[in-house]
Amino acid sequence: MYKRLALFLFSLVFIAGILYYVGFDETLGIMLSIQPAYFLLLLALQLFTMFLSAVKWRLILRHVKVSFKNLLAVTFVGYFVNNITPIGLAGGEPVKAYLLSKKERIAPEKAFSSVIVDLFLEIIPIFLLSAVAIFLIISNGISLEIAMVIIAASLVLLALFILSLTLAINKEYSLKIIGVMLRFLSRLPYMKGKADKIHSELEEIYGKFNKAMKEQMLDNYTLFFGTCLSITVWCLRLLRVYIIFLAIGIKIPLSTLIIVQAFAIVVTFIPISPGALGIWEGTNIALFVLLGGSAVTAVQATTVTMIDRIVFYIFPTVLGVLCAMFLGVDVLGLVKKEASGKVDMENVAKVIES
To answer: Which of 89, 98, 237, 317 sits in a 20 to 30 Å window from 311, CA-based?
Structure first.
């Protein structure tokens, strides 16, 4: 717990140091000069992006009877959990699966397989974005070190991509994933003392999980439209940053935007601080200044990064907390468990029985 807290405080101090170095007053002055309509547009864009994420998840679960209202709320909770865990893109997935399974009373294997497929669909547009970024780096004569980092991250994503496919057809790997899920579920009060029975039924559970994975992942309709939604979500994320630059009077080149955002994805895979606090800011500011040349100053890069952080981090976190309260989740208990590094499903959610 103290290590997590120390890293969190260090991240805040690091961000404060950046603001002090580039000029807090200048940064704040630019932010206050932005027309309120831009902020409303950015918040609406972020909300729409989160909505599309829920639509994509609903598409994956299209053969399951699920309330979209609850699924949307659980999706927002997932954003909140992602932002308080070091693993930015996937920290909230087990929580989402558990909450949806409890709230909608659907089979756990369908809920857990759906979030795996959801992550699988996220990998495809990241590959495309990374490939375009690498091409732009090489063609524009930009430092190859940046390309090497993106390539390294792409190889990690490729491994995850192959793992996702393997889960749908390989029994050994599927059983390992099921084992991890069972360890989560075995910590629930009503599951205590039933571990032996669960393991004795592992073959049956595997059959159900494998069937759910194949039904969701090998569905051409889900793959096509799910991928289209994922690509749309990533395009909207690029548009969000582009609009922030427009709000301060800069037309950032699309090539610069793609390279910086592709590199920033790498940051979300570094399990150091919650929401990659400090790392994300430092990386974005440095790259925008480096690649933007004289068109982007340190103050302007800092302003854009801080606004972007408010829109995609603070705003979704607040919405996630509100939705967690709506679903009956013990928010304080969850935060404490995340801070201590001991996440278990008993403290992830205490759902109100409907």
So the answer is: 98
